[in-house]
Amino acid sequence: MRKNKTLLFLILLTLGSLACKTLVPGAPPATITPTESSEATSAPPSASDAGSAGLGDSLYPNFGNGGYDVQSYELEIAVNNVATSDLSAVTTIQATATQDLSSFNLDFIGFEIASITVNDQEAEFERAGQELTITPVQALTDQQTFTVRVEYAGSPESVQSEALPFQTGWITYDQGSYVLSEPDGAASFFPVNDHPLDKALFSFIVTVPKPYEVAANGILTETKDNGATQTFYFSARDPMASYLATINIHDFDIETMQSPNGIEIRNYYAAGLPADIRKPFARQGEMLDYFSGLFGDYPFEVYGALVMDTDFGAALENQTMSIFGMDMIDRDDVTGTELVVAHELGHQWFGDYISVADWSDIWLNEGFASYCEALWIEHTQGASALDEWASHEYQDISEFPQFYPPPGSPTADNLFNGGVYERGGLTLHALRLTIGDEAFFKTLQTYVQRYGGGNASTQDFISVAEEISGQDLTDFFQGWLYAEKPPELP
Ligand SMILES: [Zn+2]
Question: What is the pTM of this model?
Answer without folding.
Answer: 0.92
